[in-house]
Amino acid sequence: MLASDIDGTLVGCGGEAALADYLRAHPEIGVIYLTGRTRANAEPIIRHYGFPEPLALATDIGADVYWGPDLRVDENWAFQQRRDWSPRRVLHALEGLDGVKFQGRSSHWRIVFQIRDQEALACAKAQLVRAGIACRTLWDGEEGRLDVVPRGALKGRALKYILARLNLKAQQCFVAGDAENDGDLLEGRYRGVLVANASLSLRDHLPPVILRSPYEGAYGVLDGLRQFVDDPVAMFRAEYAG
């Protein structure tokens, strides 16, 4: 089983056709996609590059789970996210804060704010805590953007749920990622690969079981996946290196 992020990992750095060809030549490898995109944004990307239809698709950083090629929504999983998610409370808590401007909702799970500076960011986070709101905050310093999402919106949590539903073990899964929101996929529960274009903040904090590929994007995924599928002894040695 390959469980992979999409942007910056499967697409965006070249090698997409080579990886898609490899996966089509190995239909025994199931694919799970885990992305910050919505379903409407993820589906066209998967089809455009000719990647296999998913066994499961987790969108909005794991807030939604869809099953099979027809992408049936998992209502049980969605209910778990809605249980303590209140966009109205989030908006009310941050309303009127200096340096915090509501930008809109990029999906039903994601509320976006423009933040003026680090001081305003600290105030916004503190206000959410004071209001007792169960959520996660995702900060993009380059864009000055703060996304507020349900506290259960985690790729690793969604993958654990998906594998349990498929009756698969962690040892059967190979993960791939590049960004900080892939960190809980790459923490060591699964073998996997960090592609060469990955966030620098991830590189020094991952266990030996995660390969650091010298290749970017899809070429990096292909590099790691070949070792996992074709040379499991090497992967075993990597797991226990050091």
Summarize this structure briefly:
With 242 residues, the chain is an alpha/beta fold.
Topology, pairings included?
Blueprint: E1 2-4, H1 16-25, E2 31-34, H2 39-48, E3 56-59, E4 64-67, E5 72-73, H3 75-82, H4 87-94, E6 100-107, E7 110-115, H5 118-130, E8 135-140, E9 145-150, H6 155-165, E10 174-177, E11 191-194, H7 200-203, E12 210-212, H8 217-230, H9 232-239
Parallel strand pairs: 1-2, 1-10, 2-3, 10-11, 11-12
Antiparallel strand pairs: 3-4, 4-5, 6-7, 7-9, 8-9
Q: Would you write up a description of this structure?
A:
This protein is α/β, with parallel strands linked by helices. The chain folds into two domains: 2-80 and 154-239, Rossmann fold; 85-150, Hypothetical Protein Ta0175, Chain: A, domain 2 (Alpha-Beta Complex). The chain is 36% helix and 22% strand. The longest helix has 14 residues, at 217-230. The relative contact order is 0.17.
